[in-house]
């Protein structure tokens, strides 16, 4: 049951079934806590509207404006729409994340390290070097939504997932057919799907496993502190679900 942000009022709204509402979703790289961190639900929910927050982050403001200008009343951002002090809510969100991105009407990818005027197809473009391509969670955020728009650091349009599919394939290894929706995710073997995440990084070691659950349609409890055992549990769940022996290559 996701908590959405109303882009007009700045109020949080609960909608039990995300498939019944139209919303935009944000994909981004989290800022380092030493650099101010991200706007969290914990420091915002006591206000009647998040827009009244005296230190409302530029990222939340930028995302809401882009979504609102495109006609979206509801938006979802993993930083401020999850109460991470609740282990139950956090575990539900982690298990539902792929589905929430898949059901979104539009996914905006905010690239804080890409300038306006950058040409993604160029071999030395900022787009190709963006940290967004190296993070663990952003893999499912690239694959799950049907419609994805990439935005520069000043929230200007850079390109779409479909239009940039050949370039994205060279950067990420994810097949053009998957990026464009011409092939189903389950048509790709387990080992190849895991290989897409091989060079990606996560802040928490457990997230290496949790961020891959949606790619295999499996669910398991999120237990921070279990370390590398999370990936072992992920492999066990995949074996139960998908009869593909290529998993053992990992």
Question: What does the model show?
Answer:
This is HET-domain-containing protein. It holds the Pfam family DUF8212. It is a single chain. The protein has 10 helices and 7 strands. With 250 residues, the chain is of the alpha/beta class. The longest helix has 17 residues. The chain has 2 domains: 181 residues, Rossmann fold (3-Layer(aba) Sandwich); 65 residues, no CATH class. The chain has a 7-stranded mixed sheet. It is 31% helix and 11% strand.
What percent of residues are in strands? 5-15%
Reported by name, the CATH topology of the largest domain is Rossmann fold
| Rg, Cα atoms, Å | 18 Å
Backbone shape: globular
Task: Specify the CATH class of the largest domain.
Answer: Alpha Beta
Query: Biggest sheet: strands, sense, closure?
Result: 7 strands, mixed
Helix/strand structural class: alpha/beta
End-to-end gap: 34 Å
Please tally the helical runs, counting DSSP H or I stretches of 4 or more residues: 10
What fraction, in percent, of the residue positions are helical? 25-40%
